[in-house]
Design brief:
Elements: E1 2-5, H1 10-17, E2 25-28, E3 34-36, E4 41-45, E5 48-52, E6 59-66, E7 69-73, E8 77-81
Antiparallel strand pairs: 1-4, 2-3, 2-8, 4-5, 5-6, 6-7
The protein binds zinc ion (ZN).
């Protein structure tokens, strides 16, 4: 399993939401830490990717793709904060 940062999920998130969510703030339901998704810890394997909190290591989300379909869940994210202003 390869350890990466949240930027490794840029393609998964863009495919699902059609926006760059790596700069969005995800709040961990476990410890309350809010950080950019790009700074989360990601473990990648051929089976999928697991996103973990960079502070407490709780699972924030999971992504699995196979046969042209994607399954994802964000069981450890209590909120996602997006900027609605243009850069
Ligand atoms: Zn946490």
């Amino acid at each position: 399993m390869t350890r990466l940062d949240g930027n490794a999920l840029a393609g998964d998130l863009a495919d699902l939401f059609h926006v760059d969510l790596t700069t969005a703030l995800a709040r961990c339901a476990g410890c309350g830490h809010a950080g950019e998704i790009a700074t989360a810890v990601v473990y990648a394997s051929p089976m999928g990717r697991v996103m973990r909190c960079s502070t407490c290591d709780d699972v924030l989300g999971v992504f699995v793709s196979a046969d042209g379909r994607t399954w994802f869940g964000l069981p450890g994210v209590s909120s996602i904060e997006l900027s609605t202003e243009s850069p």
